[in-house]
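User: These chains co-purify. Model them together.
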Amino acid sequence: MARYLISRTLQILLTLFAFICIVYFIVNAQPGDISNVYAMNPELPPDARERLQNQFGLNEPLWKQFLVYVRNVFTGSFGVSFSFYPRTVADVIAERLPRTVALFFTATVFSFYLGFLLGKIIAWRRGGWTEYATTIGGVTLYTVFTPWFALMMIWLFAFKAGWFPIGKFLDPVLWRDAPIEANTLFGRMMLTALALSIVVFVVFVITTRLRIAGARLIQLGSIVASVAVMLGAWRLTGHGHLAWDIVKHMVLPVLTLTLISFAGTMLLTRNSMLETMREDFVLAARAKGLPEKAVRDKHVARNALLPVVTSLVFSLAFAVDGGVIIESVFSWPGMGQTLVSAAVAEDLPLAVGAFVFVGIFVLLAHLAVDVIYVFLDPRIRY
Amino acid sequence: MAVDVAPQEAAPSIRKVRLTLAMRSLRENWSLFLGTRIGVIGLVIIIFYLVLALAHPILMNTVWEERVYDPVVGYAFDETRQPAPPSWNHLLGTDPLGRDVLSQLMHSARTEFLLGLLAAVVTVTIGTTVGAVAAYYGGIIDTILMRFADLMVMMPGISILIVLSALIGVEHFELALIIGILSGFGGASILLKSQALSVVVKPYIEAARAAGGGPLHIIFIHIVPNLLPLSFLYMMFTVTGAIFSEAILSFLGLLDVRMSWGLMIHTTEAAGYLLQVGAYWWLIFPASLSITLLCTSFYLVGRAMDEIVNPRLRRL
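Assistant: Joint model of the two components:
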């Protein structure tokens, strides 16, 4: 295992280098640079423009710029952003990344849960109208023209019904005299969510491992108790209404994302289940008289989980990339929006930096998948 | 005379045998396809849009006057206010610039089909070749090609396309090529290589090699034909991806195209009618629903073909 991990790490570094190469040259292949943005400005004399180019090293040949860039990346510096000058790229990404991660992790977890649940059912009821209706509905949502669907959701739930705010991350009016910065508060919210999920996860693992009677009740009780503790703690800090504002802004994008992505998991689970259902142990489980539900949930679904988990880990990694479209439609200031605005403003360091960040996460996810496999399937050894 | 006919009756030409076999498997697969139902629904939608696309040039040459119904430069002189609601002259109304929506819809259907087809053909050509070559040679060639495929899969697709089209001008043709290359060297080659691996170990490959067949001969005559069902399946998903990407990019106004479904919604958005769903439905629904339906239908057909190609998914 250790040897495998070392060789994989080396491969990852190599792949990362190749990835940076490709992304850097693709993004830099376009004509012009940041100084073009000021080219039409009559108040900016040509020598000032030249000074700008000199300052950022843009007058050097591209391969030289590239070498400098690679050296900087491997020493941990992504350069300065042109459009957010003088903030560094890492700083901008550090602000945007948590927002995207919070939104897309939540949505990914929801959509995988829903997809797995539905996938199990439609695999079991193959050929019935339940399957056709669910498949067609799911695929339609999966391949729906996302901006239109997101706008319809906004129109319906925010514009007509008025239940949720229309886009954006927070309500500026409410935050005008806020005693705390949004980023700090958001960081604390993420920590709370993390603590909450760890507690629930540990309770679930313990109750299933120990086969305690009434596990369901304990699980449910622990969820209710920890949520109550969390809400109470937020109440005491006095920032509860501000946190609630951010949560309210998250509901609609999370709902939309869940709806448009659950079908992928559903269809994957279904196919994986159908393949597992042919195995002999399923026949054995049925032959010894287990109820259908037990065969489905305990024997087939468990074994069909492997490709679903792979897909989940990759989805979580690509969540860092952020749905460019969802973020634009909901005006959610995350990675996707940063990327687009950077590309439009010719802020090349930020664009490349954002891509490299996504690449690093995806590579790490690749590694994580391989490690998780060993725990999920004892037959796999490295 | 009798001498001429006799050997033909005894051994029908190899072409005839192949044709009979092909027809038989086609018939079997067709009945399997009909049994999936979701595939049939997808096919019906595709045919509907195909008819729309083919009818457009005919209508333009017969019934529709060009200066009124041209999808890009036409103007509905008979309407006093633009955008005009649906009427008998303009079944789906007109857009904010006074152009007929139905004509735009039908005109764009053709472009979407061409785009999807080109992207899919490029993807599958590259994917099949790379997959077969990697599986046949193995070793260092396999490693290089597969690591490159990993790299391509790593690329965040839509984001890369958005950045590219924001920085350099991209049209339909270039877009199809970019999508084809990205997915051809990426997902398609990984999938097709895993299939090719199971073909390479078959006895007939060994036999072909023993009979003196060169690598090129074996790859293109013996391996590639056995990958075709799977690559045809992959084509369907590529078409969905290509149409979807085009719609997104032209909706964001990043593509240099004259007319497409995405651009129709972009025009609606630019004119400020996007959230007036009830009052101006004909500006929003036809184009968005068309994108959704066509993407869905190709995806459904792909799923149905998956059940045919993958024997592990067949009914017990």
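Chain B touches chain A at residues 37-38, 41, 147, 150-151, 154-156, 158-160, 162-164, 166-168, 240, 244, 247-248, 251-252, 265, 274-275, 277, 284, 288, 291-292, 295-296, 299-300, 303, 306, 310, 312-313, 315-316 (CB under 8 Å).
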